[in-house]
Every structure is written in C-alpha cells, then in structure tokens.
Design brief:
CATH topology of the largest domain: Four Helix Bundle (Hemerythrin (Met), subunit A)
Number of domains: 2
Structural class: mainly alpha
CATH architecture of the largest domain: Up-down Bundle
Helix content: over 70%
CATH class of the largest domain: Mainly Alpha
Shape: elongated
Largest sheet: none
C-alpha cells in the first residue's frame, strides 16, 4: 500500500488476529490464576500458558504496528486517532482503579463502622458481631486468616514512592531530549526510567514475600488483605506492562524510529507511565499511610 502522508487519506489497517489472541491469552491467564488460588493443581500451568500467549501477542502486535509506522502508513489523522484512543484508554484505567479505591473506602468508612454498631449497623452488631471493634486495619469480625501485621509506610513503600517519582523525572528528561534531537541523552534517561521501574518491582516482590512469610499478611487476611493485594498487585501489573512498553520504545529509539515532531509512540508510553506514578501516590497515602 502507498504511503498516506496525504491528510485526506486515512489508513485502515488490515484484519488482525492479535486482538483475538490477546483475548484468549487474558482469559486463559485469569482462568488459570483463579483455579490456582482455589487449590486446583492444573491452575498453575494454565496460568503460565496464558502468560505465554500474552507474550506472543505483545511481540506480534507491537511488531505489526511498528512496521506500519516505519512504512509511513500513518498521517496526521491517524495520529489524532491514536491520541484520542490513548486518552480514552487511560480514562478507562482511571475508572478501573477508582472502583478498587471505592471498595477500600466503602469497607473502611462504611462497612467496618456498621459492623461495629454505628449507624444502620446497630442490629448487625448486636445480633451477629458483639464485641467486634471497628478498627482499621481489620481482618473482619470473624478474624479471617488469623492475626497479621501491616507493612510500615516509611520503609519500602516510601522508597518505592521515591523511585517512581524519580522515574517520572527521567522519562520527562528523555522526552525533552527526543524533541531536541539528542539521541544519546534520550537513550540514557529512557534506560534509567526502565531500571527505576524494575527496581520498584523488585522491592514490591520482596515486600510481598516478607508479608506472606513474616507478617501473615496474605490475600486471605480478611478485607484488609484483599484490598491491599488487589490495589498494590494490580498497580504492580501496570508497572510491569509499562516497563515492557518502555523497553520496546528504547529499542525503537535506538533504531532511530522517532523524529522531533513525529513520536507519539513515545508520548503514549510516557502518558501511561505518569498515570502509573499518580496512582501509586494515591496508594501510598490511602493504603500505607492512613
């Protein structure tokens, strides 16, 4: 197909198998992890099979888009569509985390006080949970999962906050270097962003291992354990995806794929990374500090 630099021509991509492959991979991964968590032995290999499908999808879909971009199929109209699509995608992610933060706030500010006898929970407290103290953190009136300890905010969580804030600075420097045509500076600071993200993930894995082995803080630790791992775990998944995208962008920059004026692929990943940074600030305050 000819290049589409003409503003009146809109490139329509050919039929792609990658959305279906991605759907299959996501379903297999979630199905596997759900069964793994519920004690089914075959859940673990199914989970890893789903991850393998997702990796294949990422390589294939990224490659298709990169080849189309390098071939010159994208013009200003396509660029505008990409920007609108990325904005809506990030908005959907905002609503995704809003739902989980909402679950945390509902449990902490409403459910737990009601179970303790406040407001509409007087009868519930008197008939079902006499003696329950509505304190946070809690594993619930039935003490699900046994007693546990929380992770102090001013240790690893604070360090991870500083790491992500620093990564927001490094990717901004890399962006300015790209617009200034400083390829070496761009590659250095973009690599620094990836390294900071990977160090963040290392400390989060260490934190999880410490929680499970030393603090008895697990997914089974009542409402606190559920909300803690749900929020921090999904955020860690987003950091992992962001680090993968940044790595792909680094290799594209090394090959000279972006110019000063045409580099939305870089900008899209930078937007996503800044979103991940902002979400973590909310997590640090509402999950660890308060």
């Amino acid at each position: 197909m000819a290049h589409t630099h003409d503003a009146n021509i809109y490139y329509v991509p050919h039929g792609s198998k990658w959305p279906m492959v991605g759907t299959l991979g996501l379903f297999t991964t979630v199905f596997g992890v759900a069964n793994w968590l519920n004690g089914n032995a075959w859940g673990q290999p199914v989970f890893y099979a789903g991850l393998a499908i997702l990796v294949v999808m990422l390589f294939g879909w990224f490659g298709s888009v990169i080849r189309e971009s390098v071939a010159g199929f994208y013009n200003q109209q396509v660029d505008t569509s990409f920007r609108m699509g990325m904005i809506w995608f990030i908005f959907s992610e905002v609503m995704f985390f809003a739902a989980f933060f909402g679950a945390l706030f509902y449990a902490r500010a409403l459910s737990v006080p009601w179970l303790g006898g406040e407001g509409d929970g007087v009868l519930t407290h008197a008939l079902l949970w006499q003696g329950f103290e509505p304190a946070w953190p809690t594993n619930g009136p039935a003490a699900v999962g046994g007693t546990f300890e929380t992770i102090p905010a001013w240790g690893i969580p604070l360090l991870n906050t500083l790491l992500l804030l620093a990564s927001g600075v490094t990717i901004t420097i890399a962006h300015h270097a790209l617009k200034a045509g400083q390829r070496g500076v761009l590659l250095f600071w973009l690599a620094a962003t990836v390294v900071l993200g990977l160090v963040f993930l290392y400390f989060q894995v260490y934190e999880y291992m410490h929680a499970y082995s030393d603090l008895n803080l697990t997914l089974g630790s009542g409402i606190y354990g559920s909300t803690f791992f749900m929020l921090t775990g999904f955020h860690g998944m987003h950091v992992t995806l962001g680090a993968i995208m940044l790595t792909v962008i680094w290799f594209r920059c090394a090959k000279g794929h972006f110019s000063k004026d045409q580099h939305f692929g870089f900008e899209a990943v930078a937007w996503y990374w800044h979103f991940v940074d902002v979400v973590w600030l909310g997590l640090f305050v509402f999950v660890y500090v308060l």
